[in-house]
Predict the 3D structure of the following.
Amino acid sequence: MDRRRTRGSMSGRRGLLLAWLACSAAGCAGIQSATDARGPQAAEIAWLWWLFLGVSVVVWIAVVVGAGLALFRRNRIVYEGHDEIDEPGKTRVIVILTAISGVILFVLLVASVHVGTVTTRRPTPEQRPITIEAIGRQWWWDFRYENEPASRSFRTANEIRIPVGRPVIIKATSFDVIHSFWVPNLHGKIDMVPGRTNVIWFQADEPGVYRGQCAEFCGLQHAKMAFMVVAEPEEQYNAWVEAYTRPADHRPMGEARSPGEQVFLEAQCSLCHTVRGTGAWGQVGPDLTRIGSRRTLAAGTMPNTRGHMGGWILDPQHIKPGNFMPPTPLDPERLQALLDYLESLK
């Protein structure tokens, strides 16, 4: 009976250990993981993290082993009745351990300075960097592409697209409170402070979708303030920019507005939101010019589907309490027309 209990207990421990290892391994990969580096800056930061972790593990093992040996030696001295303490030997050990600690700290300091220098080095004009102004707002992201010529500049929200292999300069600031811009797969954090512009740059080395997150507590919906970075081949990126700089309204001159666009203007959505090429020029909320092509709604809170969009329009406070968008009561027919219009904005 005792053997069975022992085996069951050991099996349970093995199961827990395997589950812990599986969870730990899963946490090292994904669209929001600092250890799953997809750019040169993130690779440097991940290398530094693994270096610190490795050194910490080695030091911890050495301390545990040393403490065990010291206890064993102390017990043996007491048991055998020896009172002598080897003072010269003790001093020598202290000096050696202090020197080793100093060397370790110096190596980690040099590594940290190296990574800090490499990750903050500005890209050269030959690398053709893209510049995006990122403005943190409660609780969404306002992105403004500063392209040349100025006619190719535009504004978007909660999602940015970048070409693979080209540097992206982020000019980070805030409209209201302190936020923090963080895309773990591509770089570290940088604070977004009202009245101040901080600059960071990153580069994606392979296509993918990477999740960014506000990393500074900024109020009630801080946890639901995310954004997506879509890295794609340069040809696709250029096509996206061309589409984004065109007005959303392609109606021939004199043709009546669609029912959905009419609802958008009559329901006072245009007081807060912009749809370029229409009469909607609101600046309070996110730019909706290409809302139909975005992956998420409400700053990464939910996927961009017809059902989620309808729920968000009718009762945004139920989904994201405390946000500044009021409910928009619409009858089913007008709601469906509005959804048709918003989904067409691609």
Observations:
- The mean pLDDT is 87.
